Amino acid sequence: xxxxxxxxxxxxxxxxxxxxxxxxxxxxxxxxxxxxxxxxxxxxxxxxxxxxxxxxxxxxxxxxxxxxxxxxxxxxxxxxxxxxxxxxxxxxxxxxxxxxxxxxxxxxxxxxxxxxxxxxxxxxxxxxxxxxxxxxxxxxxxxxxxxxxxxxxxxxxxxxxxxxxxxxxxxxxxxxxxxxxxxxxxxxxxxxxxxxxxxxxxxxxxxxxxxxxxxxxxxxxxxxxxxxxxxxxxxxxxxxxxxxxxxxxxxxxxxxxxxxxxxxxxxxxxxxxxxxxxxxxxxxxxxxxxxxxxxxxxxxxxxxxxxxxxxxxxxxxxxxxxxxxxxxxxxxxxxxxxx
Length: 339
Hints:
By secondary structure, the protein is an alpha/beta fold. It has a single domain (2-332), classed as Metallo-beta-lactamase, Chain A (4-Layer Sandwich), CATH 3.60.15.10. It has eight helices and 18 strands. The protein has helices spanning 2-16, 61-72, 88-91, 94-100, 117-130, 211-218, 243-249, 266-273; strands at residues 26-30, 39-42, 48-51, 80-82, 105-108, 134-137, 143-146, 149-156, 159-160, 193-198, 201-205, 229-231, 253-256, 280-285, 301-303, 313-317, 323-327, 332-336. It has a nine-stranded mixed β-sheet, covered by helices on one side. Strands 7, 8, 9, 10, 11, 12, 13, 14 and 15 form a nine-stranded mixed β-sheet that branches. Helix 1 (2-16) crosses helix 2 (61-72). The longest helix has 15 residues, at 2-16. 53% of the residues are buried. The model is unreliable at 1-9 (pLDDT under 50).
């Protein structure tokens, strides 16, 4: 218990060492869950949306890191928990998080498509927690309702939106050179993907959506449009993040939620790094496999050491489209003006 409290105190200190959140900003915390996903969004009104919960752990490591971020943001409950898909590094931490703070609504794609014993147990453990709140089935084309924030569901259960979003729909010239790959029948292809709009600011999180499903969303026409910030699909694994998608999104900034030895693969890293118009790539971890030529400079990496303290990356967005990204390890910040 004492060790858990010390971890929480340390993480809170690292998160609160950076400028406090303004009442009129959308704050996004990219929490380090060692190559899984846990992304916490907090609206100006104080509502919270958490995408995934990281891994299960005997001591609740990832749940404690989420709680620390929530406390730093002044959040006492999770209003919406979006589970992108039922893999251990995304849904495994749900029971431990639920022991630490209330979760009011659960958004997911329905039943798991993976039926091996481990997958069945993982889904059953999640389902036992889900019944304690309200369950919302994610459907492409629908929205998650938060005050002052538009959250469009783009993908779920292997389906994608059928009509382009307003302002999107242009033919994608990279589709001809980006070929489909082997069909993915796993939970990854079932991922719930969302576009978050806060005034002029746009952020996309597609979970672990894989190559062919990306092409359905962005080919032959780009149904989404462009974004300001792109959370790297599938932690920066080469199974996802096709050039046809990344270049079509034309992000100003990308955040890679990789671990030291998971994600951040050179092929996917280079696709993002070389995307036209990209101003910066930030990483939760230094990717050991990539070496110096496939990692950004240290100031943009939250955790340069493999054995780390779990530092987060924080983003604060304004409705005019400007935003600031901060590395909680070293308090390095960069502001991106409205365009």
